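Possible regression after last week's pipeline update?

I re-ran a chain I had predicted before the update to compare outputs. Posting the input and the new output here so someone can diff against the archived version. Not blocking, just want to make sure nothing changed silently.
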Amino acid sequence: MRSSSRHPRVCRNALLSVGALVVLGAVQARAQTTIPLASSTGGIAVNYNNNGGGENPLNQAYLRAQFSKTNTNGAELNFDTTPLPGGGGLTWYDMFQAVPDQFGLDIIVEAATSDGTNPTPVLNAFDNVDGTVANAYNAGSVTWGISDYKGPAASGPASPLNSIINSLFRGGVGDPGHRLNGIISPASTLDGSVTNLTIVLTKVGTVFTADISGELNTDGFIHWYAPGLGKSPIGNFALTGKFFFEGTFTYDSATDTNPLMDFYQGTTTISAEVICGDRFVDTATGNDTGNICTSALSPCKTIQHAVIAACPGDDTVNVAAGTYEEQVRIDKSLNLVGAGAGSTTILAPPKASRATEDVDHGFGLRTYDYLVGVFGTGAETVNISGFTLDGNNDAKSSGPGTFRSQQLTFFNANGTIEDNVLIDWQDPAAFGAQGVATLVSGSLTPVTVNVLGNVIDGYQKGGIVALGTGAVAATIEGNTVAGAGPITTTAQNGIQISNGAGGSIIGNTVSDNNYRGSGWCSAGILVNGVDGITVQGNTLSGSLCDLLLITNNSTIEGNDIASALEWPFSILGNENTVHKNYVNGSTATYEGIYVDGSDNVLTCNRITNNDTGIFFDSYSTAGTPNGANQNTIVGNGTGIDGSLVLAPPDIDATNNWWGCAAGPGNPGCDTVTPNVDASSPAAGEPQCVTCAGAGGDTDGDEVCDPADNCPDDPNPGQEDTDGDGVGDACDPCPLDDPDDTDGDGLCNSDDACPLDPDNDADGDTVCGDVDNCPDDANPGQEDFDNDGLGNACDHDDVAGLSLRKVRTEKRGAGRDTYTVKAELDGTPTPTFVGDVDTGGITVIVETTTPPGELQAFTFSGNNCSVLGKNIKCRDPLTRSIIRLAARSATLFFKVEISVKRVTLMHQPTAAETPLVVRLQTADFLDRRDDIGGCAETTGGRALRCRELP
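New output (post-update):
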């Protein structure tokens, strides 16, 4: 494609000099995450029972990590250099590796087939006392340890002369419960500090290969080797205390000279499980020292410290309101969430104190200055929301040609940047310098980034820029971007996609990118050399070139340029769809829409009050025609100018509305130049123009997208039967509001259980949201103890109480009484006797017609005692008594209750029976029974109920 001399130059050099790329990567699953701890070179010795069974896999006695066949010290270990979460950039290597090859991995694990004839050796852990082996404190036997070796030689565990001086990490002591491949050893001396041990053994010729993996569970501490330091909780380093180990080891039976022992050689890698979870930051109350920030009550002080502490997954760093003067660097997947752009501010530190980043993201090596920098590998996802990023007008704009300064630098990572305010990233002393942008995303590999709902103001060269060699897919939507207005120092661009990026620019408001120098066209929205993009529903004003699109096969729809300057809408390229845009008011000798290309289709646009409505430049050549149809072209000096089209065919400009029924050149109509076919003029404004500049009409139903209740599905009548704001044409449940409350894929109108996504999982015809046993059939919803759990799923809901006699008497407030005689089955709760002794017991009397509680009386644990197998409780204030006399069967009791000096809710009548009595303990034992055969006595003041045994 050629560039016409008629149009001002695109500021391409300035664009490229921004130099930033866009990259975003794959989402990491939120689960337990590990970081490397160490690797160990040495072997696993497999020892066999000394019972005549020989070296048989079913006769193994124990496994032991050691350096060689003859040296039974631990396998040589060296720590990893990966930064620790919460460690301020420290690594295991930094803390422990003063002497390389000095540490050993010690493991002695009893095999599942051990019979004790070859006793498992004892491995002891040691604590350093004074730096000498002789005085190291024996801390007791363990199954494994990562130990510091000392002695006369310098080769750590490789030397048989060396001994353990300190066990930095170690397993628990005597913790039974380990299972080897799911089988417990008959010897039953296994230690639970090594779990999930798996060995897969294969053989080729005389060579055996063992793939070994498992978990090392620590005692929860780091035991420092420096005298006097003692130990630190391993959680201080954001670790759970669980290590994972795995390795591949080989053994050649042809060279075996050790009876009852096979030595497998190889390397063990060890990783440490990291504590994951949300992190909290508060500059006013926080503290970074030794803090991993997982509690809102004990937050970090700085954002950077919390980012370092976060798991390399999808942890959320929650930043409280306040101003944080710091530079933030992110190189892992996480969510960074502020309290809101009006509350949480990241303020640029002085540029002299800011670090820079030297990286090559496709344009050669560049040095990057930044306030918040995301530097990934293409496999990270970083989401940032709820901040004001304040550049303090202190961007770095000096330096060599490879220097770049970007307030929010987003490289080689996926993510969403949403609801932030980015301001004042510029250098007033060198405002014309290139390479200074506010929000830049770039990459070397295909990634996805969303820039949504942000406010960008006070930028120098670029507001939002997406570019890079890695096919970045950028969704830039709903942002407000404001340039500096008429200036002569920098050709600003509000939103830019270029250099291999792609995606969509939708619903943004962009203004005042108005360079008044010569030769360059500063753009509100710039698409530079990127094809297949969508530019839709944007509102633009005050920029020298509001829309400047160098693209092919793109869709430009529903954009509003209501108050245009010189070059409101320029499209340079082929086969683009230009639909339902509004361009009004370009001044002097300028065009509303400038076209330099072929096979572009312009339909349903409103083009008014420009010097020229549409201008087709010389590249709009014969044989590859452009079309402009069903547009409103009114009030322009010239409606369409095709005078530079070199040869037939003419520009197809049929069926447009020109302002009068007679067509171009007639009174009230715009004019056209030669090389324009304006025949068959429309008799009035085409209906499709209705949405021009009003967000477009994606589904073509003549309802503009912002007002359309089904913007992607034709719904011209906007029918919405259920009144939920979603039209019937796109509403999966047009008769329901809400549509599908429980999210089970069934509309409420068709869902027998609209609040139960499992739809009555137990099949008892009671929906799970109201079922007192949703996973166990309980159709009658029986609930003897009225605790909300039905009998079918409540082990305490056993009748268990057999009433014999109940008597109530109403004597006046505070003087009422009732007595109960019954039998109690306590077997479902073996701790029943102790529970009553310590927690007491409550008696509740109820009526059934209608249901209602008459009185509840509690005997406290202090008033209860156990006498042999019997229980007696006596309340000294009321002289109420409960006796539970043990029967011959265990936990069966004869019950006698006399409650005095209480107030019954009312005196029950025979019509309100049967009566219900419940006995409850604090641990939720709940027994109940009802009793009939009731008769009123003493003039209705008393009620007696009796059932035969």
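Follow-up from reviewer: compared with the archived run. DSSP finds four helices and 66 strands in the chain. Marking as no regression found.
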